[in-house]
Design goal:
387 residues, alpha/beta, Rossmann fold, 7-stranded parallel β-sheet, 6-stranded parallel β-sheet, 49% helix
């Protein structure tokens, strides 16, 4: 290994908020050992703050559904070609694609054929749908970093080295004490608190804002002292949410909008209403009883439905191997269904206590020294690249 990583370039691409967080942690972990390593590629604000040179912002890849991706496909292909050319020109020793498999796996495959070591961080949900991707991933990546302990066995037959790194969110999993402290921080006493998480992507916020605002209005009718916590990850998502709130004439709703801080909203809430995705795991690790909802365009829903292997999509249900959190998808994600489920969950303190205990066990199963394991894996691949 070159002294301190001097002269070593690692390409890296992340496409949304969760990938940005994973990328920032990885960069910090590697640079604690190899401070001179250069990271460059597609990065979010956390990765940039950690020292990554951003050729494009991660938001360029934060697309949802087949129709949205199809509309942006020509532009995405140009971005991918440019990133590949820049990495080849800089003689990158290693490329790390963080999630965003539709973008990253193709890029990894081309770089691997060109002699660049490649690593994919976060296994696509091959256990839930599109298991044929296992072969594609094995051909594209020299190593896979997996967040869940059941994932390495899925790739054994494909001969792909898989490293379980633990889930970084587990290190900040809630305790009964931290939940009480977070409620105090947000100045919540005994009033009912509901966390509303419409999603991190602009398209998700566009799809879900009106739904959640109408749900909140009806919950307030049943629970007049209720408070609502809404974490939004960017100025654009906040502006859209506020515009919908104004259009629906719901300015008087007792909302606390947080800039990010989904963990705080979920730790403080009695009940969460969470858009399907990484946030459902955040809810479990926050020990927040919650329900899951999601809407996509009809065409996307039809395509996905034909490929699903499991009857559930929420990560807490996947980890439990059964429905422990109710799911309301597409036409079932109605105002009346979500209101009824949220109020039923709030009213049943016994069910909420049982869920909190179950979620605490999930957190323990996902704990690992993620930063050290990730840094070890990167060093192994750099040595394989001759650095």
């Amino acid at each position: 290994m070159r002294q301190g990583g001097e002269g070593v370039t690692i390409g890296i691409v992340a496409g949304e908020a969760s990938g940005d967080a994973l990328g920032a942690q990885l960069i910090d972990a590697v640079r604690s050992r190899l401070p001179a390593v250069r990271f460059a590629g597609i990065a979010g604000p956390r990765m940039e703050a950690a020292g990554c040179e951003a050729w494009y912002p991660a938001s360029r890849l934060a697309l949802r559904g087949y129709s949205e991706v199809a509309a942006q496909l020509p532009a995405l292909m140009i971005v991918r070609r440019d990133v590949r050319a820049r990495l080849r020109a800089s003689k990158a020793a290693l490329f790390i694609g963080i999630d965003s498999p539709d973008f990253n796996l193709g890029l990894e495959a081309r770089l691997k054929r060109a002699g660049v070591r490649t690593m994919h961080y976060v296994s696509p949900s091959v256990w839930a749908w599109r298991p044929e991707r296992i072969g594609t991933i094995a051909r594209s990546a020299d190593r896979l970093l997996a967040l869940f302990p059941f994932e390495p066995a899925l790739y054994a037959a494909a001969g792909l080295p898989v490293t379980f790194v633990g889930h970084p969110l587990a290190s900040d999993a809630a305790t009964a004490t931290s939940r009480r402290e977070t409620r105090a921080l947000l100045r919540l006493d005994r009033q009912p608190a509901f966390a509303l998480l419409p999603g991190s992507r602009v398209s998700e916020v566009q799809m879900h804002s009106a739904l959640l605002l109408q749900v909140a209005a009806q919950i307030l009718e049943a629970q007049p002292t209720a408070r609502f916590l809404v974490p939004l990850v960017s100025r654009e998502t906040r502006e859209h949410f506020e515009a919908v709130r104004y259009r629906l004439q719901l300015d008087a709703l007792p909302l606390t909008i947080l800039y990010g801080h989904a963990d705080q909203a979920l730790k403080a809430a009695d009940v969460g209403l969470v858009a399907s995705g990484t946030a459902t795991l955040e809810a479990a690790l926050a020990r927040c009883p919650h329900l899951i909802f999601y809407r996509v365009h009809t065409l996307t829903a039809k395509i996905v439905a034909r490929k699903l292997l499991l009857p559930y999509v929420g990560l807490p249900n996947v980890l439990a191997g059964r429905f422990v959190v109710p799911e309301f998808l597409q036409e079932e994600a109605t105002v009346s269904n979500l209101v009824r489920a949220a109020l039923n969950l709030y009213d049943d303190a016994l069910v909420r206590r049982r869920l909190e205990a179950l979620f605490a066990g999930m957190a323990r199963s996902l704990e690992a020294d993620t930063a050290a394991i990730v840094a070890d894996a990167v060093e192994i691949e750099l040595r394989a690249a001759g650095c």
